[in-house]
Write a structure and sequence with these properties.
58% of the residues lie in helices and 13% in strands. The chain has 13 helices and seven strands. The two termini are 55 Å apart. The relative contact order is 0.09.
């Protein structure tokens, strides 16, 4: 005896929403003892009127966003099983029973898989099919120990009890990734079923390849900053330090010294800033209740703005000292030509690192203020 809520987010789907609801009703009547269709609408066409005329419950969502629409739908859905599906008929309502069967068999989250099913001609651009979706799915699988083939499929079903364990909050397309990550973090069982994927009947896709892809990647960086930011940053910073030190201690060719020194300093700056960005991502996620990072908790436990200011000031003072010596040499030379470029660059490096360290400490202190912790 199933109780099923089907949630359909819509944005100007007047051409397809009527047929979508009719076909969905026929399916739900055959597989559920109780069912409802909830349309979360942000349209400015006839979509809501058509949906209501076919018996759907229409909930208005003034704010746009894929994730916002589903979060709004979850508030009113009453079924024990909740199905998520687009309203443009790119997914077939007739595939819903496959997902419900997985829930019956013990899965908490049932995913459709277009890549293991059939993608009809013209349904998915080659960029999405062979690069975007597989790459993002691969990253998601390896970072969060998930085993799915199509992480961004828009046809999925979830137990309401499982949904209540999650802390879903993202507003855009990254909501699809967040649901999988949350399911993995809560120890929920995820299963897949092959489905069909059809081309839109009218109009182009509402997906924006690069901006939507970036939203998914940004979300994953927020949850896992170490492999995305901190580890690469530390590596580049270490290479920059070794190259800079090697040039200063070993190289004798002035031309080689200068070009290599510039490269080493550039790597040092980029690596340090990337490493700090990873720390900021981790602390932001922890203080806002998005993630539970042991690294961020450790950093926050030992964080002291005064210590970071002192450390930053030490770098700045060292830079000013070296820069002052260069200035005195220039004055002694009568403000003429000066062969102190390397010392000037080292002074710049120390000063910039000091400034970055101080402002990084201030930013972390702001996160602590919003979290209500002592700085």
């Amino acid at each position: 005896m199933r109780s099923v809520s089907l949630i359909i987010p819509t944005l100007n789907e007047a051409d397809t929403i009527g047929e979508c609801i009719m076909r969905s009703r026929a399916v739900l009547q055959s597989v559920a003892s109780e069912w409802e269709i909830v349309v979360v609408d942000s349209s400015d066409d006839e979509t809501p009127k058509i949906a209501e005329s076919h018996g759907a419950t229409v909930v208005r969502s003034e704010a746009l966003g894929y994730g916002r629409a589903y979060l709004r739908g979850f508030e009113v859905a009453s079924g024990d099983y909740i199905v998520l599906m687009d309203g443009d008929l790119t997914y077939a309502p007739e595939d819903i029973p496959r997902l419900l069967k997985l829930l019956d068999e013990g899965a908490d989250l049932a995913m459709g898989s277009r890549l293991r099913g059939r993608i009809h001609p013209g349904a998915m651009p080659a960029l999405h099919r062979y690069i975007g979706n597989p790459v993002l799915t691969w990253i998601l699988n390896h970072l969060y120990s998930i085993r799915v083939s199509d992480a961004h499929c828009g046809l999925r079903a979830i137990r309401k009890a499982a949904l209540e364990k999650m802390r879903l909050r993202t507003a855009g397309m990254e909501f699809a990734s967040e649901m999988l990550v949350e399911a993995s973090r809560r120890g929920l069982r995820i299963a897949e079923a092959p489905i069909d994927y059809y081309p839109r009947r009218r109009g182009g896709s509402k997906l924006r390849s690069f901006s939507d892809g970036w939203r998914h990647l940004r979300f994953m960086m927020l949850y896992q900053p170490i492999p995305f930011l901190m580890a690469p940053g530390a590596l580049v910073m270490a290479l920059g330090m070794m190259l800079t030190a090697g040039v200063l201690l070993v190289s004798r060719s002035s031309e080689l010294r200068m070009h290599s020194l510039i490269l080493g300093i550039m790597m040092l700056f980029i690596g340090y800033q990337t490493f700090l960005a990873g720390i900021h991502f981790s602390i932001f996620g922890t203080t806002h209740g998005i993630t539970n990072s042991w690294l961020a908790e450790r950093l926050l436990s030992y964080h002291s703005l005064e210590k970071e200011i002192l450390l930053g000031m030490a770098f700045i003072i060292a830079g000013i000292a070296i820069g002052g010596r260069v200035l005195m040499s220039w004055i002694s030379a009568g403000f003429g030509s000066l062969a102190e470029v390397q010392s000037a660059m080292i002074a710049m490096v120390l000063s910039m690192i000091g400034i970055q360290t101080i402002f990084s400490g201030m930013l972390i202190s702001l996160f602590l203020l919003t979290d209500g912790r002592e700085c």
